[in-house]
Amino acid sequence: MTAPPAPDRDTESGPFWQGLAQHRLLLQECPACRRRRFPRMPTCPYCGTDGGEEVEPPGTGTVYSWVRVERALTPAAADQVPYCVATVDLDGGGRIHGRLEPPAAARIGMAVTPVYVDHDDWTELRFAGPEGGG
Fold it and tell me: Do residues 113 and 84 make contact, with C-beta atoms less than 8 angstroms apart?
């Protein structure tokens, strides 16, 4: 199977990708309103406070929404379909996206756990439903 393309990394996203390489999920938490956010940003989008503190949630959560991809957008991705991308409300706060395994298991409100998939030069965060995956 062809690996998904590597993400673009920048100053803001660097700590997130470094954490995934260590099989750790790192998010920002606002020092004022305590809301967690992804992606990382220089200021809180909720209250406008500068900065953010790094937190490491367990990565468990529930599916808020999902979309299942049945047709490849490019010939290079033909061997990746079908796949499912879920929006996950993390336990303790925050919302993030990732592939859901197995793709057919997707259900709103379904409990999920993190799965770290190592590629040649980056690590991908996926989620597994009760049926497992990854």
Answer: no
CATH for 59-129 (2.10.109.10, 1.25.10.10, 1.20.1250.20, 2.40.50.840): 2.40.50.840
Give the Cα separation of 113 and 116 in Å (integer).
10
The residues spanned by each domain of the chain are 10-56, 59-129
CA distance 123 to 126: 10
**Tens place of pLDDT for every residue, the chain, 134 residues?**
677 778 888 888 899 999 999 999 999 999 999 999 999 999 999 999 999 999 999 999 999 999 999 999 889 888 989 999 999 999 999 999 999 999 999 999 999 999 999 999 999 999 999 866 55
Amino acid at 71: R
Nearest to 26 by CA among 90, 118, 84: 90
Who contacts 28 (Cβ-Cβ below 8 Å, separation ≥6)? 36, 37, 38, 40, 41, 52, 53, 54, 55
Q: Rounded to 5 degrees, what angle do the CA atoms 52, 116, 23 make?
A: 50
